[in-house]
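Task 17 of the worksheet. Students: predict the tertiary structure of the chain below and write it out as structure tokens. Keep your answer in the requested format; marks are given for formatting as well as content.
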Amino acid sequence: MIDSSYSMTLYDAIQLFQRHIIQNCGSESKTAQAYIRISNDLQRYAKETDLEVSPEDVIQEYYRIIVGVPAFEAVPSKSKERRGRAVQMILDILNGKEPKRKYTTHKRDCPITYLNVIRKYETFMRNDQKSDGTVRTRSGRITVFFAFLEECKCTSLEGITPELFARFVSSLNDRYSSQGKASILYTLRNFFSYDEFSGALSFDPIPFLTGIHSGKHERLPSFYTAEEVRRILNAVDRNTPWGKTVYLMMLLASVYGFRSSDIKAMVLDNINWKNRTINITQYKTHKEISLPMTDEILFCTP
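Model answer:
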């Protein structure tokens, strides 16, 4: 049981959190190591923060930065769920509570007045062969826009003015990380790329949605130079069967741009040795693609 008989500091809470994770998951488990990395990063962030800010505020701001939404709204993707859970566990420990196995986050519902609009948007995306995951993610992001409109008593797309649109864009600055804001604005730009929606406005919304920027220190680079890729590949030990397998997986990712889900699902039947092609159905888009097999891939036998 967490002892709340004294005023706990954030440092104390992080230390208790790490001990709790190691006790329940084992120090060598990938889960424990991931959670400990997150907690260490939170501690580093706290050291760089204004001393007058309360530990609770530090935790909430850190959640906003690493998850991309205000604390403690629903995470935008599965990949960020673990980060959000770790932060919420530390907050519970800070407040003298037992950390939970699962946390329920607030999911914003689309206002009733815009339900038909969001359903049309989802239909358009599916007609464009977008995956179910993409449809869900974009629907969640566009709901932020519709909720703002409802709060401003705007009940239709026709009622949106340039001033209201600009207010929405500005309102994201104080609520979302730069990456979270960029994701919402990219989705909004996609939404208004359909004439069905942009045609309802009395102005062109695209100028409000150009030059979208996300902070370079809040996420990993989205690309690597050719030299950086070569250095990463050359660091793999190819003297063992497992090393050769890892090297081949990295080649498939760097040469063809395959997603990890596509690489994981590959079997020998995906390879046409006679025509020297790799034929797969992409996991995310469900599209069938056929790509020529390069010599580097052909002769990299695990």
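Marker's comment: The chain has three domains: 10-94, 112-209, 226-298. Residues 1-6, 216-221 have pLDDT under 50 and may be disordered.
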